[in-house]
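Quick start: what a row looks like.
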Amino acid sequence: MRGLKFYDKVLFSVNSMAAVMLLLSYLLPHVEPKKFAFISILSLGVPFLIIVNIIFFIYWLLKVRRQMLLSILVLLLGYQHVFSLYKFSSSKAIENTSNFTVMNYNVRLFNVFNWIENKRLKQDLRDFIVEQKPDIINMQEYRPDDVVLLKGYHKYVDITGDKVKTGQAIFSRFPIINSGSIEFPNTSNNAIFADIKKDQDTIRIYNVHLQSMGIDPTVEHIANENSKNLVKRVSHTFETQQQQTEMFLEHKKNCPYKMIVSGDFNNTAYSYVYKNIKGDLQDSFVEAGNGFGRTLNFDFFPVRIDFIFAENSFQINGFKNFEVNYSDHFPIIATLNLDSD
């Protein structure tokens, strides 16, 4: 660091820490949370670390300093992480008469506790879905509500609870010929599935809702959160998510049909659970989206924790995310095509 002013030396020290942490995060998808839960927490900060390293690279570049090499090398080593955060290409939009659309949406109980101040929220949310006309809808944190009635759909719903009923739901314009639930222990979270008949094909639709970290995604609440309790709770959540993922994968491996998997994983695309649930499936955002693709209304940086995956036999012809304020999550829609064999 010879030739650097004191201020720049301090900055480069911070830059070095951010670069090392980002480099370490590249290993996280391969690290079991049950063994290294504390380290796994770093996966939540990967979007922030990527942005910070980009800023440092630009800073040193403008100053024509060789220190710029540190961040650019780390970013290049993890280019897949960088492009998973932000897609520079325009959204794919391939028209085909055989296309069908899949929406994933954590509806947060249709705002039953008035977290969002909007007296017409339920009607607005229903009207939004009706306007988009998705063929298949996977909802998390669903509860029956007379205001949010969706006509023209077959449905499978699995809900639990006494005072507050909540669960998952699958709506389909195509007939549902079989359905069921994968019950996760000691939680209201679960995964459900529905086998639908589209033309000559039977397609398995999975709706997965992994354990929540219970973090209020606002500056005020996180600033007041006890850091020790926060780390302990998130570490435990990641261990629980791994157990739930293993149960889901055990069920999934016996599926006889082509499948689509979507849901709220309560974790990022840099995590162990994302890597294992995705497996050989296609991430519809990576294949056809653009921009940050954020799905959670988080104050600090763009976060993508809701996903739509499809087997390679599906063509992904489009992807959209909608930043509508009807929940703490944003809905996403993938346009898919499956040519019959």
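That is the whole record. The CA atoms of residues 59 and 65 lie 9 Å apart. The longest helix spans residues 227-252.
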